[in-house]
Amino acid sequence: MAASARRRSGFTGRKGDVMLKYVLKRLGYILVTLWVIVTCTFFMMKNLPGTPFDAERFSMMTPQQQERVLEMYGLNDSLPMQYVKYIKNMLKGDLGTSFTYVNQDVSKVITGRLGPSALIGIQAVLIGLAIGLILGILAAWKHNSGIDYFTMILAVLGVSVPNFVAAALLQYYIGLKWGVLPVGFWTGWNCSVLPSIALSFSATAMVARFMRTEMLDVLNRELKYTALKQLLTTALAISVGESLLKYLPLGFNDLMYGYFRTLCVGYGIYAVANTMLLLLLYFTDYRGALAASVIFAVGTSVFTVISLFCPQVYYGFGFLAGCVLFYFIVMIRLERYTRRLPYYILSIQPVVAEDKSGVFTRIGCFMDEKLERRTNVDRN
């Protein structure tokens, strides 16, 4: 037994050494890649003809003034010496003085533009997530319908059309033709709307396709196992969690224990309600499941905002109230649905199969047939 324990410990040690070597190897690759990029960029810029200054203004200077400017920027040194200084300054975080903006450090110029760039990027991600989630949910909810084909066409266009093309179209129509938003420059938050929308196209397409795929996978998953695992996890958290927190040096006080109990009770109610929601999905009551989910999200948000204006002892009751509302909505919906379950099972499908002939359905079918013909021609 001791020998087996030694073998297991030796195996664990070897595994840890292999992982450490792998991480160090990857870090070394990163450093080498950065060095190659910096070196190539430096020598490519040095091989460009002319100087980094305005040619007209630089030619108007006297030779002494030109020598002084080159000395200030270190451009009269030999090329190897410039490279060594460049690498040393890069390691120190000093990017030097800007050639374009007089007497301004490059680091300050980059920092001044970092805020607007981060704002545009964050807004683009949020827009892509919001629209992509909605389109993906609708596509999965109405699978193989016109909405599904329409969403997938939008997703393909979002991935295919470059961001700069979308930005140019938005600038022309929304900025110039309609005059709703500014075309360029940075005078306020409204200047970030058009760039954010243009950048969000690809994110929206990817999120929509991913959400559609994941929702279809979840809807086809075994529901009994998911519900049982969720209930057992909740019961374990409620029964064991508070006991463990007392022995951990986390600095919990009585008020925090109250928050924990409130959130545990709320999550327990949520787990039961979510299990009933899975039953609704199992019985293909997608409308009821979607309505209950929307009510839960809106109710939790409203109750949480209301609890912020109450004393601290009531923090967490917003989530609890939203879970209780979610529980009753799903329970009432499931009870009404199962009461007429024979009707839904026997009568939800038409007696004669209907041919879906929407515009986007026809476009999707046409594209499928064309792809199939091309595949057959390539095989022949």
Structural account:
The chain is mainly alpha-helical and 380 residues long. Helix content is 78%, strand content 0%. It has 14 helices and no strands. Helix 5 packs antiparallel against helix 6. The chain is extended and about 95 Å long. The protein starts with a helix and ends with a helix. The model has no long low-confidence stretch (mean pLDDT 76).
Radius of gyration: 31 Å
Shape: extended
Quantity of strands, as a count:
0
Mean pLDDT: 76
| Percentage of residues in helical conformation | over 70%
| Multimeric state | single chain
Spans of at least 5 consecutive residues with low confidence = none
Characterize the biggest β-sheet: none
Number of helices: 14
Determine the N-to-C terminus distance: 65 Å
Give the strand content: under 5%
* Helix/sheet category: mainly alpha
- H and E order: HHHHHHHHHHHHHH
